[in-house]
Amino acid sequence: MSQQDVIRLKNAVFYAYHGVMEDEQNLGGKFEVDVDMRGDFSAAAETDSLKKTINYEKVYGFIQKTVLAKKYRLLEALADSIARGLLREFAAIESVTVRLRKPHPPVKGVIDFVEVETTRAR
Q1: 36 with 96: CB under 8 angstroms?
Q2: Is pLDDT of 1 > 80?
Q3: Which of 30, 52, 102, 108 is flagged as catalytic?
Q4: Which residues is 119 bridged to in the sheet?
Q5: Which residues contact 77 (CB under 8 A, 6 or more apart)?
Q6: Which among 90, 69, 93 is positioned nearest to 81, based on CA atoms?
Q7: Is position 30 annotated as part of the catalytic site?
Q8: Is 110 left (phi over 0), alpha (psi -120 to 50) or beta?
Q9: pLDDT at 2 over 80
Q10: Which of 14, 28, 30, 59 is most buried when burial is the number of CB atoms within 10 A of its CB?
Q11: Which CATH fold would you assign to the domain 5-104?
Q12: Section 23-52 average pLDDT
């Protein structure tokens, strides 16, 4: 049975142009991303070596590139793209959970944010 460790990035914030409404696609808005990456990172703990774990600076860069690369209409599509891309790019990740928030979405009411959560695994 393998170890199950988690490396978590919380509240990475980007300004991007996602949404169903034309104003969202043209004016843009703030998006917040959390990622929980699960895997066996015990070799990194034992050796204290970055080569045995996931470089979270590279993970952040990948998320940033994905969020800014194209416009998505749905948060679900963007969250899925981030999750599947992380599994593709980082072999040490066994499963990943992505939480994607849109603060102050355009709804007829008072709301802090809308959040989508998706989990993908190998």
Answers
A1: yes
A2: no
A3: 102
A4: 97
A5: none
A6: 69
A7: no
A8: beta
A9: no
A10: 59
A11: GTP Cyclohydrolase I, domain 2 (3.30.1130)
A12: 94
